[in-house]
Amino acid sequence: MKRITQIMMLLLIVGSASAQQEKGIVGTENWLNNWTDFSPKLSDYGEPSQIITGNITKDTKLSKRDTYLLMGNVFVADSVTLTIEPGTVIIGDYDSKASLTISKGATIIAEGLETDPIIFTSNRSVKKAGDWGGIIILGDGPTNKFGNSSIASMYAHLDPSSYVYTNYGGTNTKSNSGILKYVRIEYAGKKLRTGAKFDGLFLAGVGSETVFENVMVSYCAGDSFEVLGGNVNISNAISYRSNINDYKFNYGTQVVLTNSLAVRSPYGSSSKGARCLQVTSYDKKEEVDFTKKGTSVIAKNVTLINTSDDLNEHIKLGLIKEAIFIGESASLDINKSVISGFNPAVILDDKIIINQENLERIKFVDMYFNNCNGNIFKENNSNNEDLENWYGNRSFYNVYAKSQNSETFIDLKNKKRPDFRLRINKIIAANGKN
Questions:
Q1: Which segment of the chain is annotated as a signal peptide (predicted)?
Q2: Domain map of the chain by residue range?
Q3: What's residue 96's pLDDT?
Q4: What is the predicted pLDDT for the residue at 6?
Q5: Among 279, 155, 270, 180, which residue's Cα sits nearest to residue 227?
C-alpha cells in the first residue's frame, strides 16, 4: 500500500510539473536566468578599446577581450562573414546614430552562450531608449511587394556608395544570413529627423536557415522585432519595455514564433499606440502583389503581459491598448499562449469581414485570456458578440480569467531573475475549465 501511495504521489508531482508548462512560455527551469538583464542601466562595460566604422568588406572576427564602439552606419558586405565571440560587448554610438547592417548575401555568426551572452548596448552614461540605431539583417527571401526593395531611406546621411548594401528580397525562402543566439540588444531604436526610425532587430527578406534563438531586445524606442517578408523562425525571444511594438510582422512574412515573451509597461508605450503583436500584410495596398502570399504567423507558447499595477486607471488615461492587432489579408494561428492585462486582448482590422472564411484564418486555440478589458473585438466596433460566440466555443479550449499578474505568474517582482511562467495553480484551474 505504501508503494502504491508513493507511485501516486510521484505521478501527481510529474503531472503537475507537466501541467505547469502547458500555456505561455515553457521550460522546466526558468530559461530567462543567466543570460538576460532586466536592469541594464546598472551595467558598466568600461571604455571601448576598438572602433568599428565604415563598411566591412572582408571576413572579420570580434573578440571578447575587446570592447567595441560601433560608429555610424556599418555595413557587412555581400559574401562577407562577421563572427562575434561569446561575451563580446558592442557599444552603439549615440552621436553618429550607429547601426549594424548585415547586407543581402552577408552573414553574421553571433552565437553567445547562456553564461556568456553577446551584448549590444548604448555608450551614454545615462542610457535611454533610442540611444543608437540597432541591428538590421537583409536577405534574399520573398516578400509580397512588387519587385525587390531597399531600406536606404532608413539611414541618416547615407553615402550613395552604400546604397547597394540596403537592398533586400528575392525568391530564396531558405536563405541563410547566419545566427543570433544568446544576444542582448539594449536601448536601440534611434529616431531620425526624417521621421524614420530604427528598430532593435529589423529583418527583411530573411530566410528560414537563419537562426534566431534566445534574443532579448530591451528598452527600444522603435519596434523590438520587426520582420518584413521572408521565412523566419524565432524562438525564446524577449521584448522588454519597448516603446512601440514588440513583434511586428508585415509584407508577406511567413513566421513561426515559439516560447517567446513580451513585457509592456503602460508608461513606456508610444502615444500613437503600441502592441505586443502586430500582424499585417501591407501598409499601402498599391505596394503589394495580392497573387503572392500575405503575412502568416504561427505563434505557440507565447506570453504577452502588461505590467500595470492599476489597469483601470491606466486604461482611463489611454496608456494601455490591445495586445494583438491583425490586419486585412493577414493570418494568425496562435495557441497555448497567455494574454494578460490589455485593453482589449485582440483587435481585428475594421476592413476584415466577420465570416467563417476569414475567422478560420485567425485562430485562437487553448489560450489563457487574463484580466483584459474585453477579449476579441473588431476595430471601431464595441459589439463583439459574434466574435465572443465564435472563439468562446468549447472546441477552441480558450479560458478567460480575472486575476492580478502577481497571482498569475510565478515571480514578476524579482528584478534580477523574474519568472514569467504561469503559476501551477492557475494552469490547473485552466485545465479544469476547459
A1: 1-19
A2: 23-398
A3: 94
A4: 38
A5: 279
Mean pLDDT of 282-298: 96
The answer, yes or no, to whether residue 270 has pLDDT greater than 80, is no
pLDDT at 2 over 70: no
pLDDT digits (tens, 9 = 90+) for 356-402: 999 999 999 999 999 999 999 999 999 999 999 999 999 999 999 99
Measured N-to-C along each axis, helices 424-433 and 2-19 cross at an angle, to the nearest 10 degrees, of 90
196-216 pLDDT, tens digit per residue, is 889 999 999 999 999 999 999
**Residue that the C-alpha cell 571578447 belongs to:** 64
Cell digits of residue 367: 489560450
pLDDT greater than 60 at residue 432: no
Q: What is the mean pLDDT of residues 159-166?
A: 91
The dihedral sign for the CA sequence 267, 216, 134, 50: positive
pTM: 0.93
Region label for 205, one of left (φ > 0), alpha (ψ between -120 and 50) or beta (otherwise): left
For residues 60 and 267, what is the distance between their CA atoms, to the nearest angstrom? Answer: 40
The number of beta carbons lying within 10 Å of the beta carbon of residue 6 is 10
Q: Which of 14-23, 25-34, 142-151, 248-257 has the highest mean pLDDT?
A: 248-257
One-letter-per-residue 3-state SS of the chain: CHHHHHHHHHHHHHHHHHHCCCCCCCCCCCCCCCCCCCCHHHCCCCCCCEEECCEECCCEEECCCCEEEECCEEEECCCCEEEECCCCEEEECCCCCCEEEECCCCEEEEECECCECEEEEECCCCCCCCCCCCEEEECCCCCCECCCEECHHHCCCCCHHHHHHHEECCCCCCCCCEEEEEEEEECCCCECCCCCECCCEEEECCCCCCEEEEEEEECCCCCCEEEECCEEEEECCEEECCCCCCEEEECCCEEEEEEEEEEECCCCCCCCCCCCEEECCCCCHHHECCCCCCCEEEEEEEEEEECCCCHHHHHHCCCCCCCEEECCCCEEEEECCEEECCCCCEEECCCCCCCHHHHCCEEEECCEEECCCCCEEECCCCCCHHHHHHHCCHHHCCEEECCCHHHHEEECCCCCCCEEEECHHHHHHHHHHC
